[in-house]
Design goal:
The chain is an alpha/beta fold and 651 residues long. The chain has 24 helices and 7 strands. 48% of the residues are buried.
Length: 651
């Protein structure tokens, strides 16, 4: 290859890399339904309900069919159990999440605040794995169900039928291409899709219920089948409770409902600290959506179970994954049925777009804060390629089957709801709200049972989630290791005493002594000063300042420093600060002193006892260990010019 050709290849590779990593413009272009929108882009709560409704309401496309396949003649009773769990369990939990986390961070943010240190971080990584399962399966399952509606439409050419996997892959690829190009959040589109879709569903359900009422023989056939197989009413209730976990798809959408909260228009007097109007709107959104969905779930379950033969729900049957569409074509004609199909395909595809946007906002929101994301994770396009590739793999593995993916989807949904119930229970316990603690605790236990039952019955969800969790943890730990020597301090603030201490020494040589306090008496500081002077051979009359760092949560990656000044025994000046890591805090303080005083400060350490490998592990896990060498390395990377770099001494 000639030199010119090689340079052209390099230029093209550079342009491709720049396009892939162009995070800023893309984030501005498509914050997505789950992103934090600009302050001026606020909408009435009912419009935002349509935004979350493309995920929640779209499950009507496949939920009645899955319920009939899982529960048979018990489907209406099991669906009633689902509705009761929705209204008495999930809804109260997420109404509380809306109060506790009104900035769109959802229930995971509550657990972040309630749980700290490494166990809390690992728990969040696990929940992110289940959230990724939820959103990725939303993309693949919705696309698969859209394919089912396309494939069963009578106007779709026969020569194109039977290629479900290929067609689903094309829909997923189209979704990925839209996000690579740039996806603008459009609540207006969501409002139109939801309004049309719910209207058409209402027509189909009302027509079906009318046929149920006017054809009592169909009801007699259903009740006969129900009583023949399950004669005891209590047995019917018990079996419905056992079947309920398979119907948990009908609970999807609640996490999305609190994630879109920043888009809700609040009161003029709202503040970010107290967005009371936004919270009130979010609670209306959640309640209204739950009530609408509950009505449709019960009525559609009754209509489809009574009017559609059981064998048509089975895999390959005309009602499999599209029960309401089956009724639309069967009773209202092929033209109306095609319009219904188009509406269903549109909202299912847009549900995938909502899920993709949720992933693009969820992953960068948490992982970079923990130092557990590569640099490219802040860019949209590489993440789109990763998520689209994973969606391709899942589509192929499950052969674009709606039924096969139902267990994985339900697992992701149930784990998120269970975590939300746990979070609000812990919050109530901490506030000593006994009544709420008991109520939310009961709900949490119910969801734990439901989740475990679903996992035992259909372990695919856990297997997929385990792959996501394993991948997230491995990538996160490797990223944390690779970023170990970054200056992980956002801001340094000096209190008045600390400011005066630095300013008074600006014209002299500034010497700092790193000190781990014990008794905090005059003898301790005198002994430390004498030892440092002997080890480093500087004069007795040197003007020194002791620096003490208190380690807070070493699992935190980024931190802000508040430096407080004081004295011990009116003789020894001390700067105190709290941070997640001693070396990063000291490095940031040294750079702040240099910039403020325009002099290169000196800092004096003792070498850490123990082997270097052990000390590095202590630094990575607990924020202290190998302090002298790590502080020096952070300074070297942060300030390449050795003539401007603060001095580090170790003795």
């Amino acid at each position: 290859m000639t030199g010119d050709a090689s340079m052209e290849v390099d230029r093209r590779a550079g342009r491709l890399r720049g396009w892939l990593l162009d995070a800023g413009s893309d984030r501005a272009a498509h914050p997505g339904p789950h992103g934090r929108p600009p302050e001026h882009r606020h909408h009435p709560w009912w419009k935002v309900m349509c935004l979350t409704g493309v995920d929640y309401f779209s499950t009507l496309g496949y939920q009645p069919g899955i319920a009939a396949l899982a529960a048979g003649a018990l489907s209406p009773v099991a669906t009633l159990v689902l509705v009761l769990v929705t209204l008495l369990g999930a809804l109260p939990v997420y109404r509380r999440v809306a109060v506790e986390s009104p900035h769109g961070e959802g229930s995971i943010a509550m657990l972040v605040r309630l749980l700290s240190y490494w166990p809390g971080k690992l728990l969040v990584l696990v929940l992110l794995g289940f959230a990724a399962t939820d959103f990725i399966i939303t993309i693949t399952l919705s696309a698969a169900d859209a394919t089912a509606h396309i494939d069963e439409n009578p106007f779709w050419p026969d020569g194109l039928k039977g290629h479900e996997v290929l067609l689903t892959l094309l829909l997923v690829a189209l979704l990925g291409a839209v996000f690579l190009k740039g996806f603008t959040e459009a609540i207006g589109i969501a409002v139109v899709l939801v309004a049309v879709y719910l209207t058409l569903n209402a027509v189909v359900v009302v027509d079906a219920l009318w046929r149920v009422v006017t054809h009592p023989s169909a009801v007699d056939d259903w009740t006969t089948a129900l009583t023949t197989a399950h004669g005891d009413p209590w047995l019917v209730v018990g079996l419905s409770l056992l079947v309920f976990p398979k119907l948990a798809l009908g609970l999807s959408g609640f996490e999305t409902g609190v994630a879109v909260m920043p888009s809700i228009r609040g009161d003029p007097r709202d503040s970010e600290a107290r967005p009371l109007g936004r919270i009130r709107g979010a609670r209306r959104l959640l309640t209204t959506a739950a009530l609408i969905m509950s009505v449709f779930l019960i009525t559609s379950s009754v209509a489809t179970t009574v009017l559609i033969p059981a064998q048509d729900f089975r895999p390959g049957g005309p009602a499999n994954g599209r029960a309401l569409a089956y009724l639309a074509h069967e009773h209202l004609g092929e033209v109306f049925g095609t319009v219904y199909d188009l509406s269903t395909i549109g909202i299912l595809w847009f549900a995938g777009a909502s899920a993709m946007a949720g992933l693009l906002n969820l992953v960068p929101r948490y992982l970079p804060r923990y130092g557990m994301a590569p640099a490219w994770a802040r860019a949209v396009r590489p993440l789109v390629l990763v998520f689209t590739s994973v969606a391709f793999l899942i589509t192929v593995v499950f052969e674009a089957s709606v039924d096969a993916q139902g267990g994985a989807y339900a697992t992701g949904v149930l784990v998120l709801i269970t975590s939300a119930a746990t979070a609000v229970t812990l919050a109530a316990v901490r506030r000593r709200q006994r009544g709420r603690s008991v109520a939310f605790g009961v709900i949490a236990v119910a969801f734990v049972y439901t989740t475990l039952a679903n996992v035992v019955e259909r372990p695919d969800g856990v297997k997929i989630a385990a792959c996501f969790i394993g991948g997230i943890i491995v990538v996160s730990l490797l990223s944390r290791l690779s970023r170990a020597y970054e200056l992980r301090v956002d801001r340094v603030e000096l209190d008045p005493v600390a400011t005066r201490m630095i300013d008074e020494r600006a014209g002299r040589r500034i010497r700092l002594i790193a000190h781990e306090p014990d008794r905090r008496d005059e003898a301790e500081y005198r002994a430390k000063l004498d030892q440092t002077m002997a080890d480093n051979d500087f004069p007795d009359d040197s003007d020194v300042i002791f620096v003490e760092v208190h380690v807070t949560d070493p699992s935190d990656f980024e931190t802000e420093l508040l430096v407080r000044g004081g004295t011990v025994d009116d003789r020894f000046p001390v700067l105190s600060l709290a941070a997640s890591s001693v070396p990063t805090a000291l490095a940031a303080l040294l750079l702040e002193i240099r910039d403020r005083s325009r002099r290169r400060p000196h800092i004096y350490f003792e070498w850490s006892e123990g082997g270097p490998a052990r000390n590095i592990l202590r630094y990575l896990a607990f924020g202290q260990g190998a302090i002298a060498s790590v502080t020096r390395e952070i300074l070297r990377r942060q300030e390449p010019d050795p003539h401007r770099r603060p001095h580090v001494h170790a003795g």
